[in-house]
Amino acid sequence: xxxxxxxxxxxxxxxxxxRQYFTFADSARPMALESGASIGPVTLAYETCGTLNKDKxxxxxxxxxxxxxxxxxxxxxxxxxxxGWWDIMVGPxxxxxxxxxxxxxxxxxxxxxxxxxxxxxxxxxxxxFAMDFPMITIGDMVRAQKALLDHLGIDRLLxxxxxxxxxxxxxxxxxxxxxxVKSAIPLATTCRHSALSIAFNEVARQSIMADPHWxxxxxxxxxxxxxxxxxARMIGxxxxxxxxxxxxxxxxxxxxxxxxxxxxxxxxxxxSYLQYQGNKFIERFDANSFLxxxxxxxxxxxxxxxxxxxxxxxxxxxxxxxxxxxxxSDWLYPTYQSKEMVKAMKKNSLDVSFCEIDAQWGHDAFLxxxxxxxxxxxxxxxxxxx
Length: 386
What we know:
Low-confidence stretches: none
Shape: globular
Structural class: alpha/beta
Strand content: 15-25%
Strand order of the largest sheet: 1-4-8-5-11-12-13-14
Distance between the termini: 32 Å
Order of helices and strands: EEEEEEEEEEHEHEHHHHHHHEHEH
Helix content: 25-40%
Largest sheet: 8 strands, mixed
Number of strands: 14
Number of helices: 11
């Protein structure tokens, strides 16, 4: 998931939003994790938009991608220069219409954006968990979200929607809690990482762990593995784009110069862009969280977890209507992976619509303004709404 600055911010907004927190479990009754470890207390940061109707039948759960957070739409203050990460999609009259739906987005377990993660204080030591934080999975993230919905008194979702790692959570929701999910919209995602995806994540993790300031995860604000994290972000950014989008956006144009200088500084625009994105990322994200969340994404395997190796068997648990969308230029989670899940859904006679969207912007296309996606999602949601 890349930065989203520079996107179209026109149209109505949900206005000022406020981050909220929910804490559950404790040392006496910790949350059991799929790794066999346990943790407690657990805090999730979350935000809501819209109004919950009387019979609580208009709830949409938005699930964010790898480095996202709970701030999906609106602004934190009147002079906030940037809206939430999916402001193009969530708001009055938008595809996820907050005049009709009550929309919830929570920051995932393991993150550093307000939820419990490796940067949180370990109550047993009064120091950050760092590498003492237990391994987590996509299933653990979803079970923590389920605890939040229980707290909010929500027992049924009109829809769960998300892209990339958020799409993995959508799929997990659909098979883990089928009675709760009326419809599901997984975008630009997969049922399991390919070797290529795992390889990119591993190189990114190694760049962090090779940074001398990583110090086996035990670092402080004075000396953090900034270089390693910045490189990890640059690696990720390459996978979020596409050959066509990079050619269109950068080509071989030089940055602030008219001729090559034959040096190792950033001469090409694409080099400068990647360095900018890497340096910007270290201002807001924690290196250890990046390690844990990418590993959770690599572990995700819907067929293994829910179908004893069979994707068809895994989806036999689902009851939701599905809208699956992929992008022609997404080489991180290419269309064949979406078709694989659609095939498994259809073998279970599930109601599924599939669309491959022709887009040049690569994996992150779902974060960019696109009227075709807006139309698909708004129409689908209206078709499942009571």
